[in-house]
Amino acid sequence: SRHPQLNTGVKSIGISTASPCIVVVNRNNLGDSSPLIQYDEKVPGSGSDRRKRTSTLIKLLSPLTPCSLSEDRVVLTANGWLCWQLTGAAVIDRCSLAELGQPKGCAQPLCSGLPERQIAPTEMVGQMLPLMEEALGLPQGVLIVAGGSDSLALAVASRLPAGGKLIYLGTFFSVMEACADFSGSIPLLFPEIPYIWHISFPGGAMIERLASSLYSRAPSRQEQIDLCLNSAELAASQSPERLHVKVPRWRIGDSTQSLPII
Length: 262
Prior knowledge:
The chain is an alpha/beta fold. It has helices spanning 50-61, 78-87, 94-100, 130-136, 150-158, 204-214, 221-238, and strands at residues 12-17, 21-26, 37-38, 73-76, 91-93, 117-119, 124-127, 143-149, 165-169, 172-178, 195-202, 257-258. The chain has 7 helices and 12 strands. α3 links the parallel β5 and β6.
């Protein structure tokens, strides 16, 4: 770290990563893993069933984990992969299990390669490996917390009550509805996915990419974005008949739908 004095007070780290992601690793070798795939709602040949989608991806990724026997392969999510790299322990948090298609209480195992240790997002995975502490400029004894997906982190940070809705403008413009109560503490058991994404269309990241492409000569990123938004506003005010924006009628409770920005 360029500022090691800022790291001396770090006692623990909670891991939050993009979702949904999946990777197959060799539990005995930190350098042996398949590519990490971030998958969308649909995987070719798997239909819309969440469990079948996950199972299909595991079959695709398993042969891409080199130098490992089938009994050594473990299925992890992105935050689980980081926990494994930082501590050497292969675990999966219960919210990620629900996201993959195996909520708490589901009798049928999702697959044979899930980690034996399945913990709550707030539980400690273990102590950071000395090699990682040295590489990151952290003091000895830093503990790693399982954490979860970025969607879980968003619900926790927003302290949403059960049934609460959050309008979120990030990579996408979305509406999240909490299915569990996040107003007081983080849930420990997940009989279902604790949130629903109702609606989504390109948001902040798309606007930035469009602005930097169209106005590359502007001296700053902020000026690129301002020019892009001003152009859109001008076009909408002068030639509304040219903007073919069709937003279907939608309300909370409807199924998820993706909407085009133009």
